[in-house]
Amino acid sequence: MPASRDPRPQHPRRARRRARTTIASEGVPVVLVPVVLVAVLLVTAACGSDHKSAAPVSGCTTDSTSGVQGSALLPVPPAQVTVLNPGADPKSSIAYRPDRAAPQQVTLTATSALNSSAGPAGPQSNTTSVTMPLTARAHCVDATDVEMTIGAATSPDADLNSALKATKDSQAGMAMGPGLAPISLRILPAKSANDAARQAIESSLVGSLQRSVTVPTDVPLGIGAQWRTERTVDSGTQVKQTITATLRARDGDRLTIDFSIDESPLNSVFAIPGSTQTLTIDTYTMAGTGSVVLDLGRGLPVTGNLTISGGRTLSGDDPTNPLIQQMSFTDSWQ
To answer: What is the pLDDT of residue 48?
Structure first.
């Protein structure tokens, strides 16, 4: 079974989509995806791995999940950054300088929800919430590589909480670009973890990373600096994501940033995963706000929170019987 590889410079393989809701319309199965459509574990990840990294005694590691058999490779859409206002003097450049003296300890809680209030199948609801401790270490040589160990993840859902126990000590990695921009995520799940647990871990990480704030590195910034980042993400249709960020404070390498986020479809065609069928997007709204503290020596946020919500109306052959969905995603870094 071939190993997955980091997409620098190779093109990532297309992953299968999960977390789907099936609704019968006009006698044809219709598969709809939730607000955050993320790539799920590659076929190779289902095999698991016996890869075990020796516990590093310092803040950096010489081990890497890149190219390891069983490692799922998940691309994060690239962000285009535009500086709107460089801020007040004094200004200084911003650059990622990995801290290799001590590991980073942070806990991510992510919750995604998709509720259908009307449609051919009637009301439906699906909410997934996961809390996972993460230990992140910069690679001792490769400044673009951040390796992570997943701690004891939990969920309010009893069945998922039980399944998540098998993910403890799973390995993950992240390729970093300029401005603390995640380029790709690698997940090496524990061999005993089932699909539900793997998907929950993956969706939580990718859902947060693809809405992360990328910091400008080509222009010196001062307090009050504002910039815009734009990504194109796949959520059943191509969605333009726009984040407008403001630098509120800086203490050495620590940046406090407030931001707003807006997502809008680039066209009105909603492609049904696993099918050649499409639906029409009649309405679509998705917006929210957040705040984050970034450390220029760390690959993950120090603290932060994000809430984004909205809805969409999809119609098929019968426009009088549309599918109406409410969507939301929240995350918290502590």
So the answer is: 46
**Distance between CA atoms of residues 13 and 263, nearest Å:** 25
Least Cα distance to 108 among 181, 183, 39, 211 occurs for: 211
Spatial contact of 59 and 101, defined as CB atoms under 8 Å apart:
yes
pLDDT confidence of residue 118 = 67
Do 58 and 101 touch, CB atoms closer than 8 A? Answer: yes
Q: What was the pLDDT predicted at 3?
A: 46
Which residues of the chain form beta strands (DSSP E)? 21-25, 28-32, 60-61, 72-75, 80-85, 104-118, 124-139, 145-150, 171-177, 181-188, 226-234, 238-251, 254-265, 269-271, 278-295, 303-315, 323-333
Separation of alpha carbons 5 and 115, rounded Å: 36
Helices (H), the chain: 158-164, 195-209
Report residues of the chain scoring pLDDT below 50: 1-57
- Looking at residue 71, what is its pLDDT? 85
pLDDT at 123: 82
Q: How many C-beta neighbours within 10 Å does residue 102 have?
A: 11
pLDDT at 49: 44
pLDDT at position 84, please?
98
pLDDT of residue 7: 47
17 token code pair: 């989509």
Predicted structure pTM score: 0.82
How far is 216 from 227, CA to CA, in rounded Å? 8
Q: Give pLDDT, residue 120.
A: 62
Contact (CB, 8 A) for 40 and 20: no
Distance from C-alpha of 200 to C-alpha of 55, rounded to nearest angstrom: 25
Q: Which among 67, 11, 6, 71 has a CA at the least distance from the CA of 41?
A: 71
Phi, psi at 242, each rounded to 5°: -120, 125
Parallel, antiparallel or unpaired: strands 124-139 and 60-61: parallel
User: What is the reported pLDDT for 272?
Assistant: 79
DSSP string, 232-257: EEESSSEEEEEEEEEEEEEETTEEEE
Q: What does the DSSP assignment read for 60-82?
A: EES---TT-TTPEEEE----EEE
Contact, 308 vs 261, CB < 8 A? yes
